[in-house]
What we know:
By secondary structure, the protein is an alpha+beta fold. The chain is about 30% helix and about 40% strand. The chain has a six-stranded mixed β-sheet with strand order 2-1-3-4-5-6. The longest helix is centred in the first third of the chain and has 16 residues, at about 5-20.
Amino acid sequence: MVTEMDERCRGAHRRAASAAPRPDDGIVGEEGTADVGTSGVRWVIDPIDGTTNYLYGLSGFGVSIAAEVDGDAVDRRGGRPGAGRPLHRDRRAAAQT
């Protein structure tokens, strides 16, 4: 299920990637964004993780971001803006790095 907000996030990802201090990084989003980079770093973003909850105005949706270097996940962050929880580092990722 792709919402208007998903589409807006996709456009924002592309604009941010082109203006970012790391323009050679790749970016992939759950809703179809896929810009291949040349640096070996790829950002994996799900701007609305829990779309159904988001659509119904429930707080159980979040934002998920991960970084991969040469195909290996090196960091993951997640947050729940609907519940007032900012991005935090995934403990499993912290144990791996």
